[in-house]
Design a protein that fits this description.
elongated, 2 domains, mainly alpha, two-stranded antiparallel ribbon
Length: 152
């Protein structure tokens, strides 16, 4: 289906406006598609993102600021999301080695095992963009990078 059909809007000011609306609509659509992967594990996309970041730094813990800097969606409530992950036993707080007054965050074995289960669903994740072949996916990645570089 085309964007015009999906949102029942036939006119846009120009192709740039349509591109922005299309990106916003597609992001929402992608979140809906990934919900089927995250819901069975009882985590949100933001929680998955934090776990993914911490797995990448493992065994080195990270501060909440370092996590926020690496997040796909920059948000101020990173600490609250980390607290929810602590309650679930997926991450833990550890004393910062360079400044013992601070605490860092580290993924637990339970958190790594949860990510391993999600890793088994990589094909489902890839299926979300199955309408693109490898070359088109590469081109899309380059175009998205170009959009962000234009605003730096």
């Amino acid at each position: 289906m085309s964007l015009e059909q999906d949102i029942q809007q036939s006119k846009f000011r120009n192709e740039h406006q349509k591109a922005v609306v299309n990106l916003l609509f597609t992001v929402s659509w992608l979140k809906e598609q990934t919900r089927a992967i995250f819901d069975p594990e009882e985590i949100t996309p933001q929680q998955f993102n934090i776990l993914r970041i911490l797995r990448g730094s493992h065994p080195k813990p990270l501060s909440t600021q370092a996590i926020r800097d690496r997040m796909l969606e920059k948000m101020s409530d990173t600490s609250r999301i980390v607290d929810r992950l602590i309650v679930k036993g997926l991450v833990k707080k550890v004393t910062c080695e360079s400044d013992r007054r601070l605490v860092d965050v580290q993924i637990t074995d339970k958190g790594r095992k949860l990510l391993e289960r999600i890793d088994l669903k990589e094909n489902e994740m890839d299926e979300i963009v199955k309408g693109l072949n490898e070359a088109e996916a590469k081109e899309l990645n380059q175009l998205l990078d170009k959009i962000r570089q234009g605003r730096e």
